[in-house]
Amino acid sequence: MTSPIAAYDLGRIPYRASLEFQHRAVIARASEACGDAIYFVEHDPVLTIGRAGRAESLRVSERELRARGVDVVSVERGGDITYHGPGQIVAYPIVALSGLPSGRDLHRYLRDLEEVLIRAIAAYGLSAARRPPYTGVWVGDQKVAAIGVAVRRWVAFHGFALNVDPDLGHFDWIHPCGIRHLGVASLRSLLGEAPPRREVLARLRQSFAQVWDRPVEEAEAPSRPPLPETLHA
């Protein structure tokens, strides 16, 4: 029988704490101390720079960002610069690639994440799609979800950020993912109002289950390691 994937909603947590959590969760999954899981979170405003990050993708000074209380964090995921903030649903699947239909194929894994988002967004009557050569999900010329992943010991981490109802003005701080000629949208800007967070989470869980052909079950947030102490405050 195919083992279920647990899905946790951790709520709003500091970005650096979530990064520490992911590193510990990857170790736990690689050593088979726990099963596959998807963690849904929300962050305070933060900019993260991936392995392909370029200085010119940042449109304001780090000094100005610090004055606004916005952190800038370099991380090991792929891609350029991206924004996380309130009103997004950020998903961090911590999964062994060998247990997915795509197997140990990172490019197929990225396409799977895109497909999860496309199906979840389609439930709202929106025609979301890929836009090669870029990674992510778009409605027309506007990007509604960014994706950036990393793999360690064939366990995937990092993930995607879906714009439900963020402050779209915050994207003016950057060239999102290094792209200058295309826009950014949210479910709110496209639909006229933001759907409830719990509803979007339910649609994402359903889409993950369809794409990976495995049950995805809502679960209570873990209270023991690999969750670091910084998330218990």
TrEMBL record:
Its EC number is 2.3.1.181. It is found in: Cytoplasm. Pathway: Protein modification; protein lipoylation via endogenous pathway; protein N(6)-(lipoyl)lysine from octanoyl-[acyl-carrier-protein]: step 1/2. Substrate binds at residues 77-84, 146-148, 159-161. GO terms for biological process: protein lipoylation. Transmembrane segments: none annotated. Keywords: Acyltransferase, Cytoplasm, Transferase. It catalyses: octanoyl-[ACP] + L-lysyl-[protein] = N(6)-octanoyl-L-lysyl-[protein] + holo-[ACP] + H(+). NCBIfam families: lipB, PRK14345.1. Catalyzes the transfer of endogenously produced octanoic acid from octanoyl-acyl-carrier-protein onto the lipoyl domains of lipoate-dependent enzymes. Lipoyl-ACP can also act as a substrate although octanoyl-ACP is likely to be the physiological substrate. In the reaction, the free carboxyl group of octanoic acid is attached via an amide linkage to the epsilon-amino group of a specific lysine residue of lipoyl domains of lipoate-dependent enzymes. Belongs to the LipB family. This is Octanoyltransferase. It comes from Eiseniibacteriota bacterium.
